[in-house]
Amino acid sequence: MSRGCILVVDDDRAVRDSTARLLHRAGYSTQIYESGDAFLAAPFPSNINCILLDIRMPGTDGLGVLRILEARGEMPPVIVITGHGDIPLAVEAMRLGASDFLEKPYEPDRLFQTIEKAAAMRLERREARTVDPESQALLERLSWRQRQVLAGILCGHPNKIIAFELGLSIRTIEAYRAQLLVRLQLRGTAEVVKFALAAGLDAAEFGQGRESGEDDREDGRIA
Amino acid sequence: MLRQALGALAGLAGNKTGDPTATADLRLEASFEQAAVGMAHVALDGRWLRVNDQCSAIIGYSKQELLEGSFQHITHPDDLAEDLAQVERLLSGEAERYSMDKRYIRKDGGSVWVHLTVTLIRNAAGAPDFFVVVIQDISDRKHVEASLVDSEARYRAIFDSAVEAIAVIDSRGTIQSINPAAQRIFGYAPAELIGKNVRTLMPKRTAQEHDAYLERYRTTHTRAIIGIGREVEGMRKDGTALSIDLSVAEWERAGQTFFTGIMRDITPRREAEAALRTSEERLRSLQNEYAHLARVNEMGEMAAAIAHEINQPLTAIVNNLNAGLYAAKDGFTEGAFDEAQEVMVVASEQALRAGEIVRRLREFVGKSTGERRVEAIDTLVDAASGLALIDAAANGIHIERIAGAAGVEVRVDAVQIQQVIVNLLRNAIDALMIAAQKERQIVIATRLLEESRAVEIRIADNGPGIPEELRSTVFEPFFTSKAKGMGMGLSVCRRLIEAHGGSIELETTTTGAAFRLQLPQNGPSI
User: Is the complex ipTM higher than 0.95?
Assistant: First the structure.
């Protein structure tokens, strides 16, 4: 008896096959598709746990598939698989209704955890896209500079660009990032991004001039 | 007048046979009067006693006029003192005769150069009686002398004022004469070099060669460097070397052979050429570095695509190996072994796949040696395409490859040509990705051109194309239409291709963009 059916959509044969192999070993059954178009064209199987959707594909890519699914009104749990540096795409995917994103290569445990979490969310409505109050509260408590750095990360900018835009040194930015991880108890950029989205932070905030009157808590003297 | 005299004398003589004395006198008379030189008798005080016709003709006064005067009056003032001094010597008995060149002032005012020989005649008692003067017109000689002096002075001036060093040596190499330019060029005063062997002006090696030339010439009369301008090495007085442009001429005089060498100091020119060569080498190495940097930059811009491509096999490896671990988590059953075997095979293949991408990347980014080798053009194009099109499929770009130059070879620096192809393909991909179009296509075609026998590579895309107004500037440095582009690419491409004797052009197309690359084929004519 399988733990559920996972759909794997990826244009790279080796990735497709290896993902399926791994999922089988973990007790899942799978269906694999070689492209977004192939997936959309095929009849939608019922009772799937979630979809592992590669973001970069020829033809209809990951984002395109999400848009079409949303238009169709059927949004099963979708985990978008991204490559390093695809943060802006991941953010967009989340906005379009993806449950989560995972950067490859990933540890199998992370994969399974993410799948289970996404499947659990299946029953909830899609208002998961609304802001999580807890995260929002945490966001409010950040200083303006910390918020700016967070916005920069949400944009997918490297530290160099964030530093340039904010008129700070790269080392300062690195210190802010480390500080954020500790403060928010997060374990890496992907989690930071998800936190920011859950807290309702708009990436467009990055680089905006500061409004007068806002004070700068805990700013300065960051070595 | 002679006849009259003869007649008179004959009359005096009276008989036909003739008195011997009278005949002798007649002959003397004839000698005096008929002489081709001027002859005169002059009194001790200088008065003309008797003159012949020639004397009159030379001096320019009639006989009568002369006889009324003395020689002092018609002697050129500059010559008078010497003349009188010589006369004194005769009178004092110091000498019996003297000769000198002097000038008479003619009646017409002009002067005439004569050669004078004056002999003192003594009377029977031995006392000075009168002078016998023989006068020769030496005007011609004087003219010749004057023009010789003038001529000599001119040639001397040429010799002395020449910028080049001019030396005359004999067949043994001894310097007969050398001009002042030698000072400027070699650092020797001419006087220091006269009589020395011309070897003095040469460094040891050249000196030995020169001795050999002269020896060969003396024995065989074959000319090695006569007449031809030749570059030789010279040596200054201070021992430093210099470059000389040498021409040699040969001439004879009085049975001896001489050589004239004209030497031009071309050291400044040689030094400038050497400096230029160094400059050019430096430029070439900078150009290679620049091309290298352009490749590195290209790779930087492809970084995301490359990283993504390498991630694929890595993901597959991780998934596979973990699947194997999972299979064996309850111990190595037979099924587990099979699974383990499968995953190891796949993981290994995928690792090689990743390695291949890395290898191509390193090959591309590495510094090219600049060495040109013979390559098959299709192979070259395919290798470059493999790298450049790494994310083409993932981006939904359809590639059409028309390999129409099977077996055709070119002599190129493979890295640099690949750089150009990669650049063009990346541009095509970027253009296609900007535009939101369904059908994305790149055509890569190679063929051999019939007429020129050159190889053509054509890379065309069906993207938005290049706007009319920008077409003429696409190959300029720093031209870019990409927001993040640095625009190094096409200008470097053109230079690299042209350095190989080829060309690159943008086609005039109605849709999309197409670049045509041409390279000369490797063959005997090249």
Answer: no
